Amino acid sequence: MGPLSGRRAHLTQACTVPRPIEALIHPEALAHNLARARAAAPDAQLWAVVKANAYGHGIERAFPGLRSADGFALLDLAEAERLRALDWRGPILLLEGVFDPRDLELCSRLNLWHVVHCTEQIDWLAAHKTQQPHRVFLKMNSGMSRLGFTPQAFRSAWVRLNALPQVDEITLVTHFSDADGPRGIAHQVATFEAASADLPGERSLSNSAAILRHGVRSDWVRAGILSYGSAPDFPEHDIRHWNLQPAMTLRSRLIATQQLQPGDTVGYGSRYTATAPQRIGIVACGYADGYPRHAGPDTPVLVDGVRTGTVGRVSMDMLAVDLTPVPAAGVGSEVTLWGNGPHGSLLAIDDVAHAAGTIGYELMCAVAPRVPVK
Question: Is residue 12 part of a domain?
Answer without folding.
Answer: no
